[in-house]
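User: Could you check the structure of this?
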Amino acid sequence: MTDVALLLTPIPNRRFLTALCALHKVRGRVLETSGGPIAVLDDATAGSAQHAARALSGFVKGAEFLLAESRDGNVKVELWKAGAMERELPAGLALADAPGVVTTLLTGAQTLDQVAETHEQKVHSTDMGRVKAYRELLKETKALKKAQS
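Assistant: Sure, the predicted structure tokens are below.
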């Protein structure tokens, strides 16, 4: 079974999350789900996954991020906030309300490539230049602020 690392975020916009990942050199793909976008990391090693959680949660201060990792069939979930891991959570409880695709990916029932075959328009690469990512973040931030007012 292949290791998998996902970041579940409070970010409601896939374009914002995609640009945020690109800006912080977090390689992977953003998957739009019924519960919001999630980042599926290309490098699921523990060090890389923790780096991604640290970078993204550190940028969006005050928001809670869940890092869900599956290694050798064991799922581990950590709560990250302000660039630091706060605590480990029971996987079953932490993921109880997560979209079904999260469980599908973590259990290895399907790979992201298999999900992308039937939901191609829902999978977005984080591969973009830093300048483009920064511009996209600015644009999406303005749009989110406008929508909130």
